[in-house]
């Protein structure tokens, strides 16, 4: 093994210079190896055995994908395996270049035993930049302790369509809020020497709120809205990587789009790091977007666009030698891509330090008490009180608690596992938990004969017809069709079948089809427990749609079935091959007839009923409507009809429409996905031990027909709304209630007249006039009254979350900069135009308390 050059004189040369020297010494195969990445689970098996040495050749490998890997050993053993793999690659490759190991870290490291913070949308609801930076510092330290030096986070897409299943992964609808939270997140990681990867570039939610659907956005919209968080993360936090998205932009896949990556990302934004694909992007460009049936051509297009690394190795960048031979690419283009990656590796010290990670140290800080305490404070700050008629804080002594999520709280997508997650039922001891039997996670039985049958060439046969394919996208024809008596499988250590196309650890998908004949009429609850993506459709109605490859969780759904009828059922299962498991069950057992629940009887004797409820959403699980499940809505209205004070706690990553029941409940508390300490935080708010101050990072519509809805829409050319529905949201962006009240004093400006290049300050005094201590989120919006191009009527430009004791007053100072007053003119130049600007300060985008007019005169100085 030869060492990388000049280690002793590293301080005298920049990271780029050292990278350039190294590239000159490398063969073409060694260069292309740096553009590739392997799954850790392909190198180490599920029992911790180092079985994949043959996947790492003498040219080494650029990176390792270590995320959502469910292995059967401790954190210490996991770290030891990573140490061994890293050491193996460095010792047994000619150049000894260390791999860059990445993982998912949206709201905590997505590996066993890591601390879990509120999901990203919940962190955005804190409107607390310091809290975000503190939380991300914890996640970064847990990453570094395990040898993970690249985070595939944060998601900085702007959430403009609430049907999109991945809204939970974002920081909301507003570029200012998203940018501030994203910069705070990235700053902590980059300081710790862990590379951040803002994603998914760009606008990954398209037509119809569908994930990775086409977008046809103008350059103006991209620059003024969707590019802003990326630009800020690069300029203010030093993000060294960006992930490109699956979707097309103006019919060109984002990962193959030279204008997007070279002209906009590298040119307009000044990015000099490395670009990575989303998982399987090149295969999707071939199989779904139909760019070419030749993966070599697609890989060449990615090289031309400036994509530095394929995550993980899906075959595209294994074709680069062939692409070179066919004249589709040049070695100089490869050199430029490799240079970016090696420069980043030098910058974070991979070549200079000891890469050994202490297994005991990593285990000690993973989910430690100090980190859990940070997650607890973050959860407190994330909770948003949307409605309260005085029932909260709780005063009644006769309190009932119900809902599956009160017993089994959700952490959200890309979550850790094998950690202690207390439930609200455990902590809210003054409430009696009542199991209504609807969508409960208890007492499920496998669905099998005599209630299910399918059809074959001979007619009716018992069991399910299983259609097995050798890829997780359900693409192409089946490799295997068989009839399964029941759906109860664990393929962790054995193949699907003795079939050459199904090896242990490889991705595959199954669609089971059959017919269900219930023995009794009634409400049935179905449960799919799976390590993989799942869907459930009964009688052409989609009941479960959580189609993301995740660690084991349960999805439940309820529907009414009638005796004597036959219902078609379709169950989908998709897995990347990491410990695939699935079971399909229901709450019916012979002799037990389902019945209509009598909620009034169940909750008799209780004054207040707290209902914890959620929705099905997530990656690959977009929603066609935003309502709660029908069974949940009925429980709410039945309790209200029975005269109960109903408190609804909602676990969700996006908005829920509430028009059918909002006026009938006493309180609504939005929990988002509050992390492992969320139940503690919820109990605090319910008891009055913590005064909620979270604010909405997205607008909540009254009805699904209003979507897409966001507060900063541009004015219409006709001042009319819907003739049959308000065009205003149910709860606006920035909204949230408190147990106390705040008054706003006069807004004063340091100067009411400035030139275009100058700044000024805005001052306002806020006073806690209520009965208890609390926090207020003071929001500053700016409205350009007249402009050469149409702009939104108000745009968030700054905010401060402040704590005030009862009766306390505090003066806040905001600095109004030229950037806050700027727009893109007709030629897309960023300018500050002369004219009047309205400075608005309030408690939400609709609740404006004070305003003042700032007049700007022309300046000879250009921006920047």
Question: What would you note in describing this structure?
Answer:
The chain is of the alpha/beta class and 864 residues long. It contains 21 helices and 39 strands. Strands 14, 15, 16, 17, 19, 21, 22 and 24 form an eight-stranded antiparallel β-sheet that branches. A six-stranded mixed β-sheet has the order 10-28-27-26-11-12, covered by helices on one side. Strands 1-2-3-4-5 form a five-stranded parallel β-sheet. Strand 26 (608-614), helix 19 (630-641) and strand 27 (645-651) form a beta-alpha-beta unit. The model is unreliable at 1-8 (pLDDT under 50).
Envelope shape? globular
Average pLDDT, to the nearest integer?
91
- The beta-strand count equals 39
- Fraction in helix: 10-25%
Largest sheet: 8 strands, antiparallel
- Strand fraction equals 15-25%
Task: Give the helix tally.
Answer: 21
Classify the oligomer: single chain
Alpha carbon gap, first and last residue: 49 Å
Question: Which spans have pLDDT < 50 for at least 5 consecutive residues?
Answer: 1-8
Radius of gyration: 28 Å
**Structural class per helix/strand content?**
alpha/beta
Offer a concise description of the structure.
Helices cover 24% and strands 24% of the residues.
Keywords for this structure?
864 residues; alpha/beta; 8-stranded antiparallel beta sheet; 6-stranded mixed beta sheet; 21 helices
Helix and strand arrangement:
Elements: H1 15-25, H2 28-34, E1 37-39, H3 40-43, E2 63-65, H4 75-92, E3 100-103, H5 120-125, H6 129-145, E4 150-151, H7 175-191, E5 195-196, H8 219-226, H9 228-237, E6 241-244, E7 248-249, E8 252-253, H10 258-268, E9 274-277, H11 281-287, H12 295-305, H13 320-325, H14 331-347, H15 359-365, H16 369-382, E10 384-388, E11 399-402, H17 424-427, E12 431-434, E13 445-446, E14 452-456, E15 459-462, E16 464-469, E17 480-484, E18 488-490, E19 508-516, E20 522-531, E21 533-538, E22 541-546, E23 553-561, E24 567-575, E25 581-586, H18 599-602, E26 608-614, H19 630-641, E27 645-651, E28 667-670, H20 678-687, E29 742-744, E30 748-749, E31 753-755, E32 760-768, E33 774-784, E34 795-804, E35 809-816, H21 818-821, E36 823-824, E37 830-831, E38 835-842, E39 848-857
Parallel strand pairs: 1-2, 2-3, 3-4, 4-5, 6-9, 11-12, 11-26, 26-27, 27-28, 31-39
Antiparallel strand pairs: 7-8, 10-28, 13-25, 14-15, 14-19, 16-17, 16-19, 18-25, 19-24, 20-23, 20-25, 21-22, 21-24, 29-32, 30-32, 32-35, 33-34, 33-38, 36-37, 38-39
Helix pairs in contact: 1-14, 2-14, 4-15, 6-7, 6-16, 7-9, 11-12, 16-20
């Amino acid at each position: 093994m030869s060492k990388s050059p000049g280690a002793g004189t590293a301080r005298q040369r920049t990271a780029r210079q050292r990278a350039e020297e190294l590239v000159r010494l490398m063969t073409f195969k060694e260069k292309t190896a740096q553009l590739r990445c392997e799954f850790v689970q392909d190198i180490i098996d599920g029992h911790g055995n180092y079985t994949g040495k043959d996947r790492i050749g003498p040219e080494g490998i650029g990176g390792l994908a270590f995320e959502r890997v469910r292995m059967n050993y401790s954190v210490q053993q996991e770290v030891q395996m990573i140490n061994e793999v890293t050491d193996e690659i460095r010792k047994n490759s000619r150049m000894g270049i260390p791999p860059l190991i990445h993982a998912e870290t949206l709201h905590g490291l997505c590996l066993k035993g890591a601390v879990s913070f509120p999901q990203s949308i919940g962190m955005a609801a804190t409107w607390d930049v310091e809290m975000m930076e503190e939380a991300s510092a914890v996640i970064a330290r847990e990453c570094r302790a395990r040898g993970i030096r690249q985070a595939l986070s944060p998601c900085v897409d702007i959430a403009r369509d609430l049907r999109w299943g991945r809204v939970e992964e974002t920081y909301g609808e507003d570029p200012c809020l998203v940018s501030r939270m994203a910069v705070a997140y990235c700053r902590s990681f980059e300081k710790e020497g862990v590379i951040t990867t803002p994603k998914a570039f760009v606008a990954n939610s398209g037509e119809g709120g569908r994930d990775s659907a086409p977008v046809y956005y103008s350059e103006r919209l991209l620059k003024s809205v969707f590019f802003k968080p990326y630009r800020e993360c690069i300029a203010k936090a030093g993000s060294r990587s960006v992930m490109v998205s699956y979707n097309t932009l103006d019919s060109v896949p984002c990962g193959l789009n030279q204008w997007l990556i070279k002209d906009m990302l590298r040119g307009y934004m000044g990015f000099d790091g490395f670009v990575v694909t989303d998982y399987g992007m090149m295969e999707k460009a071939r199989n779904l977007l139909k760019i070419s049936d030749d993966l070599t051509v697609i890989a060449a297009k990615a090289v031309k666009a400036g994509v530095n690394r394929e995550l993980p190795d899906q075959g595209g960048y294994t074709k680069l030698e062939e692409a070179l031979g066919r004249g589709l690419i040049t070695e100089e283009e490869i050199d430029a891509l490799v240079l970016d990656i090696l420069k980043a590796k030098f910058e974070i010290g991979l070549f200079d330090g000891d890469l050994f990670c202490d297994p005991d140290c990593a285990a000690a800080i993973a989910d430690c008490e100090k980190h859990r305490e940070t997650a607890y404070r973050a959860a407190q700050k994330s909770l948003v009180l949307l409605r309260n008629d005085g029932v909260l804080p709780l005063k009644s002594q006769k309190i009932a608690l119900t809902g599956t999520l009160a017993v089994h709280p959700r952490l959200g997508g890309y979550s850790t596992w094998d950690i202690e997650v207390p439930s609200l039922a455990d902590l809210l001891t003054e409430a009696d938990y009542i199991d209504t039997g609807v969508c409960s996670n208890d007492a499920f039985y496998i669905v099998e004969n005599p209630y299910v049958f399918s059809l074959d060439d001979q007619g009716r046969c018992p069991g399910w017809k299983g259609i097995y394919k050798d890829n997780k996208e359900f693409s192409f024809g089946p490799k295997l069709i068989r009839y399964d008596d029941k759906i109860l499988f664990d393929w962790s250590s054995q193949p699907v079948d003795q079939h050459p196309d199904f090896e242990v650890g490889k991705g595959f998908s199954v669609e089971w089809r059959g017919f269900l004949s219930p023995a009794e009429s009634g409400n049935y609850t179905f449960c799919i427990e799976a390590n993989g993506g799942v869907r459930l459709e009964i009688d052409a109605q989609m009941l479960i749609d959580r189609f993301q490859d995740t660690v084991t969780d349960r999805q439940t759904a309820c529907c009414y079935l009638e005796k004597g009828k036959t219902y078609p059922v379709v169950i989908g299962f998709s897995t990347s091959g990491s410990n695939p498991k699935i079971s399909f069950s229901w709450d019916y057992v012979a002799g037990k007839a389902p019945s209509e629940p009598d909620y009034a009887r169940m909750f008799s004797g209780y004054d207040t009923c707290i209902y914890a409820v959620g929705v099905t959403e997530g990656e690959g699980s977009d929603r066609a409507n935003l309502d709660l499940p029908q069974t949940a809505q009925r429980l709410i209205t039945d309790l209200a009809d029975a005269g109960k004070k109903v408190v609804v706690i909602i676990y969700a990553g996006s908005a829920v429409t509430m028009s059918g029941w909002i006026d009938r409940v006493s309180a609504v508390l939005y929990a988002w996905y509050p992390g492992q300490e969320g139940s503690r935080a919820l109990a605090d708010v319910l008891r009055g031990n913590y005064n909620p101050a979270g604010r909405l990072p997205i607008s909540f519509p009254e009805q699904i027909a209003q979507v897409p809805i966001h507060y900063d829409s541009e004015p219409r050319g006709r001042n009319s709304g819907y003739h049959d529905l308000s065009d205003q949201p149910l709860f606006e962006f920035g909204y949230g209630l408190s147990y106390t009240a705040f008054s706003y004093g006069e807004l004063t400006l340091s100067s009411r007249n400035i030139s275009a290049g100058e700044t000024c300050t805005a001052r306002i005094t806020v006073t806690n006039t209520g009965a208890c201590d609390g926090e207020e989120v003071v929001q500053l919006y700016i409205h350009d009254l007249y402009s050469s191009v149409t702009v939104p009527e108000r745009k968030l430009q700054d905010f401060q979350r402040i704590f005030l004791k009862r009766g306390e007053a505090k003066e806040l100072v905001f600095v109004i900069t030229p950037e806050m007053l700027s727009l893109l003119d007709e030629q897309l130049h960023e300018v500050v135009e002369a004219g009047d600007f309205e400075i608005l300060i309030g408690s939400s985008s609709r609740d404006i308390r004070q305003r003042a007019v700032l007049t700007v005169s022309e300046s000879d100085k250009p921006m920047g």
